Amino acid sequence: MDEPFGPEYVRPKQKDCPHCGCCTEDLCKRGRSRIVQCAGLTPDRFRDTVSGCPCSAETTRHTAAWQAARVRVTRLARERPLTAEAEVLLRSLWGVGLAEDVEDPGGPLPQLKVRGLVRAGDSRRLEITERGRTYLAARDEVRAATAVWVRCVDTSARTVLVEVSPWEPGEPVTVFLDQVVDDTGLPADKLTGRWQSGEANRHAESADALVLNGFRNSALLPAGWTGENGGEDE
Q1: pTM summary value
Q2: Three-state DSSP class for 113?
Q3: CA 120 to CA 129: how far, in whole Å?
Q4: First and final CA of the chain: distance in angstroms?
């Protein structure tokens, strides 16, 4: 039979993601490394289907959205903190929660909820979120300018491995490429081997607890540093 317009093209079926029921494996791999998550990488007609995918959500550790949320809430704590009343309530929720999610239109609860610092858990019990704990840590911890050395850049995963002085020299920390590029204005291919400055909670107990923000280009070498690049800045 003649086909005047050529054979119909059918896109090969992509492999489903084994960790969710809404996306392909490839979409989730890309969504984890993008602040816009899976929904932001999807055509409009499929966006409702993948919206809220757990593989790229900001509530899932080590996603780009998770890291971006930690940076945002840290800046909130440092630059535009909650009212004293709201902060007292947030601290009271740490580890105990409230018996129930009470209505409080004129009190501090609405600002805690809208910022995602608290949520209603099982049986409507009000509890602090990980974002809320990050907020309080940012209020309590000492944050200061620190030297950051870019060890390498993975453009496919959109990640950057950095070493943070004086936190743990020699121990790499992963940050997302878009954050460093946006802050410094440098393209990805100009980052490897460079020194940057940033703000960090230097006494963080683990890489997961370390929050870096405010990257800036720097030629300064921290005293006593003997990093893999021999102390030379490109």
Answers
A1: 0.80
A2: helix
A3: 10
A4: 65
